[in-house]
Design a protein that fits this description.
The chain has a single domain, classed as Rossmann fold. About 35% of the residues lie in helices and about 15% in strands. The chain contains 9 helices and 7 strands; from the N terminus they run αααβαβαββαβααββα. A 7-stranded mixed sheet has the order 3-2-1-4-5-7-6. Strand 2, helix 5 and strand 3 form a beta-alpha-beta unit. The longest helix has 17 residues.
Length: about 220
């Protein structure tokens, strides 16, 4: 069944309203608050957000309440969801925005796409993001070890985590907790903050470190009281 037909009223009633619902509005609100907080910690000023697969709009609701000045674009591939919650109808495997966003949210989308479509989607996510990407995609490991199969939609394209990492790596640096930093953003990370970086160690003078434009002290607000 095509995704746009699959994500109908019955799907959302089961996974977002009934006893088998995956995430509540409160839970997603906590996640949104955490992502916004980490963005601030990393020095990323979030003035614009693009959400893919917005569904019931929990992320958008949090930003409207706590960050009302942020330009928020919510999209979904489902015609039913777009009519019900007022999203723009977009398929990230075949669309990219004209201008990038500071934060891109892609939660529970990629696992519904086949390999070719998912690879195209990752390329479009990279083009859409000039700051941070929040990504959640259920992998084969997650199905075996993490998720509650009774409450999770397991009719997906289950891929290994390294499949995603190999396609994300040219465009993003993994920060952790679902966050990926766009390489084009040049966000400085402590060595232990993100995924391992394999580079040749080199000595650098304290003067060079102090004057570096990418130095950690360049992050906004780190030493504000």
């Amino acid at each position: 069944m095509p995704a746009r037909e699959r994500f109908d009223d019955a799907y959302y009633r089961r996974h977002y309203q009934g006893p088998d619902r995956v995430h509540t509005a409160t839970q997603v609100g906590r996640l949104a608050a955490g992502v916004a907080g980490l963005a601030a910690w990393l020095g990323v000023e979030v003035g614009s957000v693009l959400e893919l697969g917005a569904g019931p709009g929990h992320w958008r609701a949090w930003f409207r309440r706590h960050r009302p000045a942020v330009r928020y674009v919510s999209t979904d591939v489902s015609p039913w969801a777009c009519r019900r919650w007022g999203h723009a109808r977009r398929d990230i495997s075949a669309w990219r925005p004209r201008a990038p966003f500071d934060l891109v949210v892609c939660q529970g989308v990629l696992q519904y796409l086949d390999d070719e479509a998912a690879a195209r989607a990752i390329g479009n996510l990279a083009a859409a993001c000039c700051g941070l990407l929040y990504l959640e995609a259920v992998t084969r490991h997650d199905l075996d070890e993490v998720v509650d199969a009774a409450r999770t939609d397991t009719d997906i394209h289950a891929r290994d985590g390294h499949w995603y990492r190999a396609r994300l790596a040219p465009h993003f640096v993994q920060v952790g907790a679902g966050l990926w930093a766009a390489r084009s953003a040049g966000i400085p990370l402590y060595e232990l903050e993100g995924a391992p970086v394999h580079s040749t160690p080199r000595r650098q003078s304290s003067r060079a470190r102090t004057g570096s434009s990418a130095a950690r002290l360049g992050r906004t607000g780190l030493h504000e009281s």
